[in-house]
Amino acid sequence: MSGIYLHIPFCKQACHYCDFHFSTRLKHLEPVLGAMHQELRDRSGEVQGEVATIYFGGGTPSLLKADQIGAFISAIRKQYTVKDNAEITLEANPDDLDESRIQAWKQVGINRLSLGIQSFEEEELRWMNRAHNQQQAHSALALMAQHFDNYSIDLIYGIPGSSPEQWEATLNTALGYNPPHISAYALTVEENTALEHMIQTGKSPDVSDTRAEDDFKILMQRLDEARYQHYEISNFARDGYYSKNNSSYWLGKPYLGIGPSAHSYDGRTRRWNVRNNIKYTRALDQGESYFETETLTDRDRYNEAVMTGLRTQWGVSYHRIREEIGPKYENYLKMQAESYIRKGWLFEDEERLFTARAAKFLADGIASDLFMLNLE
Ligand code: SF4
């Protein structure tokens, strides 16, 4: 089974921290969507088996009209075999939600929404340069909860200048709506973003790892008390509401990425499309190349399995490493993990290696210590 990801590379305005690929020049929207349809047609032979998830990400897919979203879903249904109960998610921003759009999205086949709330604090939303305000965050969430059973909200923690009490208040506000799924990400400073510039020029305090770790502890504790399952470092869900799309990535399933900057994976090869709307559109139009590929070595596949596995509740499967990559990788993993198991940061059963609750914030760093660097 596979997933299809559609990257809609447009936003109304640039959030200060964002390094995703997007443009605010909406006049290029129609040509880019046309080129994406072309890419979908060209690549229909690449998907083996049924499509289990369709995900509209970005950028801001909720900028699209419902019939533009519907046209993609119809095209995928026509050109690919889509599973009966496929999960079809639309990322949406609060300022794009109203009753009629929500109804129209449902009618064209969207059955899951992921809402980019990020914060309920007016000051924080302004600091991030989000396009929505506090009141829109509340009204969009209330509307979404009324119309969708399956939805998620995104939140950001570790915001400079905010306090742990503010973060806890944000979580409590979110929990008041009883969302079935919550994604919460530590704010990071990416290269060439407005945030990096603001910090370098003294217009903003720097982000703090200690502060992020404190917020992460609050996050784990509050969502544990509220009985959410912490199934991936940044993701929490009620039973039955895990994101099927994201879970497939973490479990190493293949996916097709359509649109500028979108990545694809077929189990052996990674491919990424050019991160430029005009180059992407022109190349599709003129039949030129618009992507690069990389065939993963066994070592790459081992490192990825360790990195993603230690972030999830499913852990790293010794069986998968042994059967799909090779016994020497399983032995190496067990040897490297020993000292962390002794410290209580990792634990194992017969078939899997897991990150202990107390070490979850450190999972990425631990994983990189278990990577295989030069042994091939
Ligand atoms: S809306 Fe999303 S993709 Fe667009 S700038 Fe903000 S964070 Fe980035």
Automatic annotation (TrEMBL):
CDD domains in alphabetical order: Radical_SAM
Cell compartments where the protein resides: Cytoplasm
GO CC terms in record: cytoplasm
Keyword Iron-sulfur: yes
Domain Radical SAM core: 1-229
UniProt entry tagged with the keyword Iron-sulfur: yes
Domain of life: Bacteria
An example molecular function term from Gene Ontology annotations: 4 iron, 4 sulfur cluster binding
GO biological process, one term: porphyrin-containing compound biosynthetic process
Main location: cytoplasm
Keywords in alphabetical order: 4Fe-4S, Chaperone, Cytoplasm, Heme, Iron, Iron-sulfur, Metal-binding, S-adenosyl-L-methionine
InterPro entries attached to this UniProt entry: Coproporphyrinogen-III_oxidase, Elp3/MiaA/NifB-like_rSAM, HemN_C, HemW-like, rSAM, rSAM_horseshoe, rSAM_sf
Function of the protein: Probably acts as a heme chaperone, transferring heme to an unknown acceptor. Binds one molecule of heme per monomer, possibly covalently. Binds 1 [4Fe-4S] cluster. The cluster is coordinated with 3 cysteines and an exchangeable S-adenosyl-L-methionine.
Family statement: Belongs to the anaerobic coproporphyrinogen-III oxidase family. HemW subfamily.
Family matches, as PANTHER family: COPROPORPHYRINIGEN III OXIDASE (PTHR13932), RADICAL S-ADENOSYL METHIONINE DOMAIN-CONTAINING PROTEIN 1, MITOCHONDRIAL (PTHR13932:SF5)
Protein name: Heme chaperone HemW
Organism (species): Robiginitalea myxolifaciens
Lineage: Bacteria, Pseudomonadati, Bacteroidota, Flavobacteriia, Flavobacteriales
